[in-house]
Amino acid sequence: MKQVEKLNIRRSLELFEEAKTLVPGGVLGARKPSDFIEGEYPIFLQSGKGCRLIDVDGNEFIDFLCGYGPIILGYREEEVDEAVIRQIRDKGFCFTLTQPYQNQLAKKIKEHVPCSEMSIFLKTGSDATTASIRIARAYTNRLKVMRCGYHGWHDWCVEMKGGIPPKLYEDVYEFHYNHLDQLEELMKQHGDQTAAIIMTPFGHPLHQKMEEPKPGFLEGVREIANRYGAVLIFDEVRTCFRLAMGGAQQRYGVTPDLAVLGKGMANGYAISVVTGKKEVMMAAAQKLFISSTFFPNSDSYVAALKTIEILERDNVLNSIWEKGNRFLKKIEAIIKKYDVGAELSGVAPMFFITFKRDESGSHKAKRDDLYTQLIRRKIFFTPHHHGYICYRHTDQDLDIAANAIDEALAYVNEKQKGGS
C-alpha cells in the first residue's frame, strides 16, 4: 500500500486545546473534530482562495466542502467582495430602516424561482425554515408538520433533542425521501390538522447516499398537499442557485407553495430567504412577527445581487455541471476498479462517496480509511457530508482529486485484502 504521511496539524491541536477552555467543546456543530476524523483533519483554517484552503499549520488543500455549501463561485471572489466593501465604505449597511436592495433582490429571486411571488429575507437556513413553518401555520390555522430531510437546529426539527421539551416537536412527523406511501399514511391520520409538508426536493439525508426523486414522487407530494390543503415547502437551502438557478423545483418541474433558499446565493455572505406564493406569504404581514436587528443588513443583499449577476453573466452553473459530470465519470470508473463497496451518489454540483452498509460495521472502517487517505493527500472532503463543485475548481484540480481518490481506494482495497 502506498503510505502517505500524516499531516502536521500541531497548531490546530494547540488552538483546539485553548478553545476548550473558552468555548463549550472547543468548536460546535458540524465543525467539531468528531464530525471529521480526529487527529487527521485540521480544526482551524487560516485562509482560502478560489477552491483552495490553507490551515493554521500551512497545509494547503483542494476543497470540496465549500463552507458546507455557500461557496458557489470561490473563496475571496473579488467582484463580490469589492461590491460589499464599496457598500460598507460608501453607504453603510446596518440601519434602523431598510435599504432599497431588499426590493432589487426580491425582484431577482422572482425572475428565477418558479414559486416566488413575494420574499422575506433572513440570515440562516434555520431562520428561514422556521419562518416558513410559522407562515404555514398562520396561513392554515393548523398545527401539524410533515418533514423530510435536514432543516436546521431549531426546536421543531433538530435531531439532537437535548434541552428541548417534547411538546415543542410532538406535532412534527418524519417521512423518508422517495417513500410516498409513508407520507400518504401520515396524512390519512393527520391530514386535516397538517399545516405544512416541508422537504428537501433533492434527497441529501444526513450521512447517507444522495437521491434524485423517483418518477412521480415530487408530483405525488404536490398532489397530497393539494388534497389536504397543506402548504408544500421545498427546503432549497442547498439546491437553489446550484442545481439550477431556480433550484430543484425548476430542475424537476414541481412547484411548491413556499421555498427556503440560502447558501450559494451570496457566495458565503449570511443571507437566507423564504419565498413563495403571495396568498400564503401575506400571512407574515397579517398574522405573525418576524424580525431581527440584522435581517435588513445590506452587505449580504449586495453580495447576493453580485453573485447572482455573475451566475447569470458567466453561465456558472453550466460550467459546474460540465466539469462535475466529467469528474463524476472518472470517479465512477475508479470505483469500479476496486471491490470495496464504495458507492457514488448525487449529481454533478453535489455528490457523495459512501460505502455499502453491512452488519459487521466494516463500512465505517473503510470510510474512515478512504477519507484519512484523502486528507493526507490534501483533498478536503468529510466522511459525513456530501461534497460540492464550485466555479473555481479547474479541470486540473479535479484531475488531482480523482487521482487521490484512486490512490485512496487502492489503499482501502489492499488493506481489505490483508495487504500492508
The CATH topology of the largest domain comes to Aspartate Aminotransferase, domain 2
**Which CATH-level-2 architecture of the largest domain?**
3-Layer(aba) Sandwich
SSE topology string: HEEEHHEHEEHEHEHEEHHHHEEHEEH
The 3D shape can be described as globular
Mean pLDDT, to the nearest integer, reads: 96
Helicity range? 25-40%
Rg from C-alpha positions? 22 Å
- Supply the number of structural domains: 2
Query: How large is the share of residues in beta strands?
Result: 15-25%
Q: What is the β-strand count?
A: 14
Structural class: alpha/beta
- Largest sheet properties: 7 strands, mixed
Give me the side-by-side strand order of the main sheet: 4-10-9-8-7-5-6
- CATH domain class name of the largest domain: Alpha Beta
End-to-end span in angstroms? 6 Å
pLDDT < 50 stretches: none
The CATH homology group name of the largest domain: Type I PLP-dependent aspartate aminotransferase-like (Major domain)
Query: How many helices in DSSP terms?
Result: 13
Note down, in words, how this protein is organized.
The chain has 13 helices and 14 strands. It has helices at residues 10-19, 78-90, 101-112, 125-140, 180-190, 217-228, 247-252, 278-281, 283-286, 298-313, 316-337, 362-376, 395-416, and strands spanning 45-49, 52-55, 60-63, 118-122, 144-148, 172-174, 194-199, 231-236, 258-261, 272-276, 342-347, 350-355, 379-380, 387-388. The model has no long low-confidence stretch (mean pLDDT 96). The chain is of the alpha/beta class and 420 residues long. Helix 2 runs antiparallel to helix 10 (298-313), helix 3 (101-112) runs parallel beside helix 10 (298-313) and helix 12 packs across helix 13 (395-416).
